[in-house]
Amino acid sequence: MPIMLIFDLVLIVIMLAVGALMIVVTFAIGLVTHPIRTLLATFNILSGVVGGLALLLAVFTWFCYRHDAFDFNQVFWGFTATTVISIIIRILTTWALNRIARHDREAQLIAQPPRPVNRITEVHYHITLPDGRKTERVERKLVNANVTDEQPRRYVTSEQPRR
Fold first, then answer.
1. Out of 78, 108, 132, 134, which residue is the most buried by the measure of CB atoms under 10 Å away?
2. Where are the transmembrane segments (predicted)?
3. Please, which residues have CB within 8 angstroms of residue 138's CB and are 6 or more apart in sequence?
């Protein structure tokens, strides 16, 4: 039985080492390709971890620490302030990560496929009634529903004046 326990512990340590190595490699590649986004993501994750631990320690301090201790206020309010600051940092980094850069927005506009256009055509039916009167019936039909709008779209950039 202890041999299997040792084998399991060795396997767990190896898996943790491989996971840590993968995180380091991913972080290094991210710093090379997108340094600002990688740092923002790192601060986002770290602020979440620190804020969660500070919240747990604040609750632990409230319920398990003597309230008449000389340092209770400093410890409790320190953990509470750390939680609030972590929440603010997490909100700001999430906003910055989710915001699409102006260059990316312009690239998305240019890469848009042509929009499908539905064309409606009127069909005129000339009908002769049995008594000899002629009448016309107009019916609207949807035709060429897969035709695309091939007109070039203009994009206004900061260098071009608006018309």
1. 78
2. 6-32, 39-63, 75-97
3. 122, 123, 124, 125
